[in-house]
């Protein structure tokens, strides 16, 4: 119940922001979801007092390893510490299936030095431990789940297309409501009709819950592309079936990137 309340509270706070503040807040959710208090206050600046969703990492024993915590290299949120037999695994709850997991090195670290992590996944970039103290904060779990992770998907889509010739990507472009959808992708190749994709990126753990939430919305007067992470490709058919009859198309991230690239004149990076 608390997670649902926190999710609703986040959306209410976001809705009350001016369009430019909304765009700034969405970017900050992805770029600065955890860290030292002084850094967070500086980065969030005038939005800091409105976003009282941060909690002290010192209150989260599940992410602490000998008094230290480790930010995921993908989402920058604290990774979970799990004892497996005689080994200690440190992993991101969201990105472990994609290869973000580590084990604690058996070598002794010096006094006041964070234990070394050895990458055991294909995208386990080096990470440095930070003090699990009361002045190190992180966004609450519901805000991470429903605010940070979807924003990361949106930014990944933008970054895979933004340098493409003839492609323009606008983030949270709606006026006066920038939360109407997440991205507007326009392909304008000289001599060809202009093509547009209005995209709502969704990174939900439950496809059934996502489908229900989308069905509860008012239908849009335009085609809306629902984009899900590649690892949820097996759920696309289910979502299409549930959303049949609406002006909605469901694709994975890679599929929509391929569509846009073909429209722009090729598939090469």
Explained architecture:
The chain has 2 domains: 2-141, no CATH class; 142-264, no CATH class. It is globular and about 65 Å long. The chain has helices spanning 2-15, 19-31, 37-44, 141-161, 207-215, 236-242, 253-264, and strands at residues 34-36, 54-56, 68-69, 80-84, 87-91, 101-104, 117-119, 130-131, 136-139, 167-171, 183-187, 195-201, 224-228, 248-252. Helices cover 31% and strands 22% of the residues. The strands form 4 sheets. It has a 5-stranded mixed beta sheet, with helices on both faces. The protein has a 4-stranded antiparallel beta sheet with strand order 4-5-6-7, with no helix packed on it. It has a 3-stranded antiparallel beta sheet with strand order 1-9-2. α1 (2-15) crosses α4 (141-161), α2 (19-31) packs across α4 (141-161) and α4 packs parallel to α7 (253-264). The protein has 269 residues and is an alpha+beta fold. It is built from 7 helices and 14 strands. The chain starts with a helix and ends in a 5-residue tail after the last helix.
